[in-house]
Design brief:
Elements: E1 4-6, E2 13-17, H1 21-37, H2 69-78, E3 85-90, H3 98-108, E4 112-114, H4 118-121, H5 136-141, E5 148-152, H6 161-174, E6 178-181, H7 198-207, E7 208-211, H8 216-221, E8 225-230, H9 234-242, E9 247-249, H10 256-266, E10 270-272, H11 277-289, H12 291-306
Parallel strand pairs: 2-3, 3-4, 5-6, 5-8, 6-7, 8-9, 9-10
Antiparallel strand pairs: 1-2
Helix pairs in contact: 1-2, 1-3, 6-7, 6-11, 11-12
Length: about 300
Amino acid sequence: MLASCFLSETSPAIWVYPPSSCAAAVQPSFLVTGSSLSSIKKVDFLYKEMIPEFHPFRYKDLPFIGLPIQEVLDLIAMISPKIPPSAFICNTLECLEQSTLTQIRHHYQVPIFTIGPLHKTSPTPSTSFLEEDTSCIPWLDKQSPKSVIYVSLGILATIDAKIATEMAWGIANSNQPFIWMVRSGSVHGCDWIEFLPEDLVSEMKVRGMIVKWAPQKDVLAHSAVGGFWSHCGWNSTLESVCEGVPMLCQPCSIDQMMNARYLSYVWKMGLEMVVERGEIESAIRRVLVSKEGEVMRRRAMEIEQLK
């Protein structure tokens, strides 16, 4: 669910927006310019160009890019306020998304209440239906500070075995400690990791752990974790930002591309991923053991201290 509103018979809507505010900020303009934007295809030279109306986003960062125009307009209309909102409630921080919050205020002329990050301000027990493998925490206790890459593409994303295999080889070839969360059924046509060569799995387990589900907030808060390879869902993004952990960005859909753009281009605490084993190996090493990674980590810590 992208958004929801609370209604009564006598009052306007209060719009509750769970994702990043940048997703809300582009909606009004997209309804106007969507007919031209949705026709941009991945092969078009404009695909990686900046969009003047939507700085700092490129065409490739927008939700629904490349879909038929009517489908785009229907989707945007579905998640936009039907009744003029009297206020927005956003799971974010003012210092984190100041420019986009300003855009929303300017367009709707209503107050915005930033109440995030909810996982810190209103912590709750895990509501996941998946059993957490807590054995990774004692394993982390034995690792050096900021030495481990944590890999998780969230609870919904699914990928092809070919992509997952490239991920595995990239992780293995980086020679860095890791925790890789692979949900059962998250790889198309596979129950778990049976698509990987047994010798590769054996080699990987010497240096890290492959788990079905991890206690993510505890993992990210651990001093041994130096990077988070993520799909850049907003909850995962906030959890990483709040722990000062730089990110490797592999967005899958909807607002994740915009979140990844902010992480890499605006907040400068993330790297965009190319899912090819050599690129993956390089990206992991850049974050964990290079000067560039040290700069990203300092930047992540600066942002963490603003919350």
